[in-house]
Amino acid sequence: MNMASMSDLVFLLLIFFMLTSTLIAPHAIKLLLPASESRTMAKQTVTLYIDDATQIYLEERPVDLNTLHIGLIDKLGAETEGSVVLRSDKTVPIQSVVSVIDVVNKINADKGTKHKVILATQPN
Hints:
The protein has one domain (29-123). Helices cover 40% and strands 20% of the residues. It has three helices and seven strands; from the N terminus they run H-E-E-E-E-H-E-H-E-E. The strands form two sheets. Strands 4-3-2-5-6 form a five-stranded mixed sheet, covered by helices on one side. Strands 1-7 form a two-stranded parallel ribbon. Helix 2 packs across helix 3.
């Protein structure tokens, strides 16, 4: 095998992996995020999702508010200042978002931690 055919093979593999990597969805739960002009970047510890049917997901596992409390304590572990990124569909009632924030605030009050909730938005 000469070097020309070897470089052709490498370029074909490169193109193959570039095309297939674009097909992978980074977020499996489909949401229409609210729009915002501001940009905040934070180290994310845990991701929560609320879909358009107001179903709450911890990472990608469906939970209710009681299970969310237990799951967040488990995921946050011994961390004292974690960031909880909340990715909520823009059609979700604000009370559902506030209920999730209340769960994090209760953990902060009970454990003496300073976890913060960051609402994910999409840029305009």
